[in-house]
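ok so for the tutorial part 2 we go from a plain amino acid sequence to predicted structure tokens. step 1 is just haveing the sequence, like this:
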Amino acid sequence: MKKLALKSALLIPTFIFSTFLIMTIVGCTSCLFGLDHNYFSCAYCNIFKVITLISIVAYLTILYLDIKLVYKNSFKK
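step 2 — the prediction. this is what the tokens look like for a chain of 77 residues:
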């Protein structure tokens, strides 16, 4: 169970940092291409929502598989 807690403690900041990094790269790239204010108020927010949703689903999947493995191993003993 300690391994699961450690993995969760490391994964959450990693997912938050990766989301921040991806959004920074998307923002800088779109600014470089000269996109207008409408892009940042519509498409940029939608990109952020999709990337955040993917991160949350990935985290929950990893957490679910780890919890399933912990319970499976605890019932074998």
